[in-house]
Amino acid sequence: MLNMDYMYDDYDGDVVDRTADFLADILSYMGYDAEIHTEVMDNTAIFDVFGDAVKDLSPAKDPTVINAISWILKRARFAIGSGYRFDLDINSFRLERIHQLEGVAKTLHDKIDSGVERVQIFGMDNVDRRAVHMLLNADPEVRTQSNGYGNYRHIEIQRADS
Length: 162
Prior knowledge:
Layout: H1 15-29, E1 35-41, E2 44-50, H2 63-80, E3 85-90, H3 93-113, E4 118-122, H4 126-137, E5 142-147, E6 154-159
Parallel strand pairs: 2-3
Antiparallel strand pairs: 1-2, 4-6, 5-6
Helix pairs in contact: 1-2, 3-4
């Protein structure tokens, strides 16, 4: 059985180390042997899981399992009162995806610059939408927002002054 007691007791370590240990236990319980790299950027703790054994967990193949593990980590974050946001990645897949989305964000920005009033993009998961928001919100001339619910949630990009 998975031992989660240290998530709630006086663990000797910071919340990021505690969560990385918790994640390692989850993966071990699932039968995966993996290496976890952690990085903290702008109050977001990124847990990147590496190894050949975990390549089947890649969001490119099926995001269901990795999203479920992410959900468990987020619930643990609330339980221990962490102020961090937790992001989970497998073999840097999502980091590479963000690099791909930089080109998408530039294309969308160029459309708005060319005079298009509003652009709506459907079919993005929450991680991709968040990446586009972060990439475009750095520009004060562009405003982004997510609208809709569930499978109909989409991102809208428009000029900041409209």
